[in-house]
Amino acid sequence: MAVEILQTTPLPPVIEEILQRDYTVHRLWQASDRNALIREASGRVRGLVTSGSVGADRALIEALPRLEIISSFGVGYDPIDIACAKERKVIVTNTPDVLTDDVADIAMVLLLSVMRRIPQGDQFVRQGQWPKAKFPLTEKLGGKVMGIVGLGRIGQAIARRAEPFGVEICYFGPRRKNDLPYRYYDNLTAMAKDVDILMIACPGGRETEGIVNAEVIAALGDKGYVVNIARGSVVEEPALVKALVEGKIAGAGLDVFADEPHVPEALLSLENVVLTPHVGSGTHQTRRAMGELVLQNLAAHFGGRPVLTRVV
Ligand code: 8YV
User: Per residue in 15-70, pLDDT tens?
Assistant: First the structure.
C-alpha cells in the first residue's frame, strides 16, 4: 500500500509525476469540498506536501492525526505552524540552498531595474519615442551603500553579487557574524540612516513582522531605495506605499507583498517602482531542484532515513 500524502498546492510537472507514481496523493487545491476531502483521508494521511506560500496552519495539522512529515516547497516556512508541528512531533522540511542564487539574482535585477529605469527604457523604445526624445539620466549603482536586512544564505549571496558592482555592504540582523567582513548594525533605523539601499532578505514570520516600519523608511530618506525579495510581512506596506507615492524615498523593487497575489493599487501607477509576482525562485532549473528536494525528504523519511533539510 502506497503512503498517502495530502498536497496543498501544485508542483512542477516532472515532480508531480514522481509524487503520483510513488504515493497516493490527495490534491487539496482541486477539491470541490476541502473539508470533506480532509475528513475522508485524515485517518490515512502520513505526509503533507505544501509550499512556503500556502503553508499549513494548526487546524490542518491537527486534522491529520497520523501526520509524520510536512515537506515544504520553498525555503521560507512562515505560514507553517511550527509550534504545532513540534507539539505533534511532526517533522518539517524546507528547500534551502537550491534557490539562493536565483533569489539573489532577482534582488540585483530589481535593484538595477528601478535605479536604471529599465521598464521605462523598454517602453520608451517600444513606443517609438527614441527618435524623438532623449531618455532621462538615471542613478549609478557603484558607490552606493547597501544595508542588508538579514545576512543569511540569500543575504550573503546578494552581498557577493553587489560587491563587484562597487557597492559597500553592511547588515542588520539578530546577531553579528564575526566571520563576515561587513559592518554590523543592531539597530535597523540607525542602519537605514547610513545606507542608500535597504535590501530585505530576512525570513518572514512573527519575529520580523513590520520591522521595516515608517520610522525605518523615513530614516532611509528621499535618495533611498528599498528592495524586498523576502516576505511582504517584513515591511509595513502602507508606510512604504505612502513614502513612494509622496516621493519620500527614491524607489522600490518588490517581488513580495503583504497580501499576494494582490498588490496595493497605488503602486500600479507609480514610476519609481518595479514589481514582480514573487518569482525569486521561479526558474525551471530551481523549481525542479526544489521539487526534487521535497521528494528526497519524503523518500528519506518513509524509507526510514534522516531527512535532508529539516527545520524541526
Ligand atoms: C517559493 C519562496 O516561490 O522559498 C520561498 O520561501 O518564497 C519561494 O521560493 C514559494 O515558497 C513557493 O510557493
Answer: 999 999 999 999 999 999 999 999 999 999 999 999 999 999 999 999 999 999 99
CATH for 4-98+285-302 (3.30.700.30, 3.40.50.2300, 1.10.1660.10, 3.40.50.720):
3.40.50.720
Counting ligand 1 atoms within 8 A of each CB, the residue from 15, 54, 72, 75 with the most, and so the one to mutate, is: 75
CB 25 within 8 A of CB 47: no
Radius of gyration of the CA atoms of the chain, in A = 21
CATH 3.40.50.720 residue ranges for the chain: 4-98+285-302, 100-275
Three-class secondary structure of residue 44 per DSSP: coil
Q: What is the pTM for the complete model shown?
A: 0.97
Please check whether residue 267 is in contact with residue 289, taking contact to mean a CB–CB distance below 8 angstroms.
no
Active site residue 231: yes
From the candidates 17, 87, 207, 260, give the one annotated as an active-site residue.
260
- Whether the upstream peptide bond of residue 261 has omega within 30° of 0, thus cis, is yes
Which of 73, 208, 287 is the pocket-test mutation for ligand 1 (most atoms within 8 Å of CB)? 73
Q: Answer yes or no: are the C-beta atoms of 58 and 279 closer than 8 Å.
A: no
**pLDDT per position as a tens digit, 122-152:** 999 999 999 999 999 999 999 999 999 999 9
Q: How far is the CA of 64 from the centre of ligand 1 (A)?
A: 24
**What CATH homologous superfamily does 100-275 map to?**
NAD(P)-binding Rossmann-like Domain (3.40.50.720)
